[in-house]
Design a protein that fits this description.
The chain contains 6 helices and 33 strands. It is globular, with a radius of gyration of 24 Å. The longest helix has 13 residues. The N terminus is likely disordered. It has one domain: TonB-dependent receptor, beta-barrel domain (Maltoporin, Chain A). By secondary structure, the chain is mainly beta. A hairpin with a 7-residue loop joins strand 29 and strand 30.
């Protein structure tokens, strides 16, 4: 890692207090599961606001995530294709994704990951990314971190409405409708979206003209709260998406990646019903909730009879209780209990025996946050989970934030993470025939500094490290003679706990407003994510990545800006046989208000026509142009 990185951070810490000014605090909820000023959490939380999403005209959530430090987004082609988000080098299924508090990780997916390719932007208040192992408060899947997507609810008026319509390259069309408001005891937010594109060829067949792989997607969100009294309220939340995505396959006679008419239909329904009770004058907050998700993924091949060659259905039913007790002004205790049951039902034409499976995991946690000094906040927590299949697991968390001056905060934290084996790991034909799989586990820590600079500018630097053990991998039985391979001879292998990895690095971020009309933000991540057995960098994780966003408010009516995203060179495979080139993508965006309630906007994506493959054999969208109109009341 360049020495200049450390020297720059040190220089900021030394000279900034001489001319720094205080800045408004940012309140986040993901770090402690309660609203807290970011300055006292002791943890790394990155935030992208709804205003930033609108300004940059981002349509797909994964495009927003790649702008945040420590996140690597890997997409097999254009929108709608398989999309993985790797948090600080963690595996795809090791990041928990929430929408309004509801887990959308899919129990039917191979590793239990969230299906992010179908997740569109609409009516989002903000996106919070909590980095590092977080299982003490969030349980399974939170090894890399937590992505928390919060939609708008309530407002200053009984009714606020906005609508967007957009069209552009690749026969793309998008329509978003959203409303929110507060009317007496009722707060609400609701939205609907539709997205259609012919897309690009997912397979990189340049220079040949290839058949594009299109997608269409529509969805609904709702976030409702009714205040039955001053101390009792009820919540109802809904997230629904349905997508049809064309993808490439490996048809005969060449069995190379190319268009063959295959497509998938993906549906996800997630719901939340909750009751909130405030006692002892608001010092004791209670929440009781029922959460439910139902996913259904189907693949079709027009060259087969019948055409449906795969389906996967997953369900999760979850009960949660959380209590928050404010003992006094400097001590707060958060505690809770959770129980989740998941089911899997999947079948492939290549293995016509249906795979059925289920699991139940229950746990409890307690967290204590205290301020022994006005400038020092300490947080400690412990959790115990009991899984029907693998048994018990304990997770710990410690964090501290010291506001050394009015503008300087030093922070550090330690956290445990674990991920229960997925239902596919446990019940598919590739399950381990001899030994029960263990959960994947991680221990991580970080230390950092947040510094307010001049005229509202801010900078931060964080060093992080995480060790992950018992990672589940596939054992290839080719050429191996053993009892397990004899039992899995027809399958060719099985899942087992073997993987070990270590991730460490530095994240640096800064934001500034050098002029009244100009806003700048930038971040840089150095990531060393290596296989502990081979010492090689893990596949598809760039060591160096950078984001830069500049927004110019030229007048009350006109605004413009650009975003630059850089991902350094990396390898497509763990053996480092297939290199991937560094990729630099530059996007331009602009908007013009015709009147108070009507705005025109447009953007250019991939301005300089970056053609670096995100995954070996897959393409990336070429330069594209989009324009639209936005109205609001």
């Amino acid at each position: 890692m360049p020495k200049t990185l450390f020297s720059s951070v040190a220089l900021i810490a030394l000279i900034a207090p001489a001319f720094a000014q205080s800045v408004p605090e940012t309140v986040v909820v993901s770090a402690t599961r309660t609203p807290q000023p970011l300055e006292v959490t002791g943890e790394s939380v990155s935030v992208m606001t709804g205003e930033e999403l609108d300004s940059q005209q981002i349509d797909v959530v994964s495009d927003a995530l790649k702008e945040l430090p420590g996140l690597t987004v890997v997409r097999d082609g254009g929108p709608g294709q398989t999309t993985d988000v790797l948090t600080r080098g963690a595996e795809a299924g090791q990041t928990l994704v929430l929408i309004d508090g509801v887990r959308i990780n899919d129990p039917s997916a191979t590793t239990g990951e969230a299906i992010l390719g179908d997740l569109m932007v609409n009516n989002i208040e903000r996106i919070e990314v909590l980095s590092g192992p977080q299982s003490t408060l969030y349980g399974s899947d939170a090894i890399g971190g937590v992505i928390d997507i919060l939609t708008k609810r309530g407002g200053d008026t009984p009714f606020a409405f906005n609508a967007e319509a957009e069209g552009g390259s690749f026969d793309t069309a998008r329509l978003n409708l959203a409303a929110n408001g507060t009317d007496g005891a009722f707060e609400y937010g609701a939205a609907a979206n539709y997205y259609l594109t012919s897309g690009i060829s997912a397979a990189d067949l340049r220079p040949a003209n290839a058949q594009p792989d299109g997608t269409h997607n529509w969805g609904l969100t709702a976030n409702l709260r009714w205040h039955a009294s001053d101390s009792v309220s009820f919540d109802a939340r809904l997230y629904y998406t349905h997508a049809r995505d064309t993808f490439d396959g490996y048809p005969p006679p060449n069995y190379t990646l190319q268009y063959d008419g295959e497509f998938g239909r993906d549906t996800l329904l997630a719901g939340y019903l909750g009751a909130n009770v405030s006692l002892i004058g608001g010092r004791f907050e209670n929440r009781l909730a029922l959460l439910y998700t139902d996913s259904n993924r189907e693949n079709f091949d027009v060259n087969l009879t019948p055409e449906e060659d795969f389906y996967a259905k997953g369900k999760a039913t979850r009960f949660e209780y959380q209590g928050i007790f404010e003992a006094n002004q400097t001590n707060e205790i958060t505690f809770g209990a959770e129980s989740e049951t998941t089911t899997l039902n999947t079948e492939s034409i290549y293995d016509p025996a249906a795979i059925l499976g289920n699991d139940r995991i229950s746990g409890g946690y307690v967290q204590w946050q205290t301020q022994p000094l006005a400038s020092l906040t300490l947080t400690g927590g412990v959790r115990y989970d009991d899984d029907k299949n693998f048994g018990g697991h304990t997770s710990l968390k410690f964090a501290g934030a010291w506001q050394a001056t009015a503008t300087t905060t030093l922070r550090a934290d330690y956290g445990d993470g674990f991920k229960a084996p997925s239902l596919y790991d446990l019940y598919s034909e590739y399950s381990n025939p001899l030994v029960a799989l263990k959960p994947e586990t991680a221990k991580g820590w970080e230390a950092g500094i947040d510094q307010a600079l001049w005229d509202g500018a801010r900078a931060s630097a964080t060093y992080f490290a995480r060790d992950t053990r018992n990672q589940i991998d596939f054992f290839d039985c080719y050429g191996v003679s053993s009892t397990a391979c004899t039992l899995r001879a027809s399958e060719g292998g099985y899942y087992y706990n073997i993987g070990r990895s270590r991730a460490s690095g530095v994240e640096v971020a800064a934001s500034a407003k050098p002029a009244e009309a100009l806003t700048l933000s930038a971040d840089y991540t150095y990531l060393s994510a290596v296989d502990s057995d081979t010492g090689l960098q893990l596949a598809r994780r760039p060591q160096n990545s950078t984001n830069l966003t500049a927004t110019w408010q030229a007048s009350a009516a006109f605004a413009a800006g650009l975003n630059l995203n850089y991902a350094g060179s990396r390898f497509d495979d763990d053996a480092h046989l297939t290199p991937l080139k560094a990729a630099t993508e530059v996007n331009l965006f602009a908007s013009y208000k015709l009147c108070e309630h009507l705005e025109l906007f447009g953007r250019v994506e991939n301005l300089f026509n970056n053609g670096a493959d995100p995954v070996a054999g897959y393409s990336t969208p070429a330069r594209a142009f989009y324009a639209g109109i936005r109205t609001g009341l």
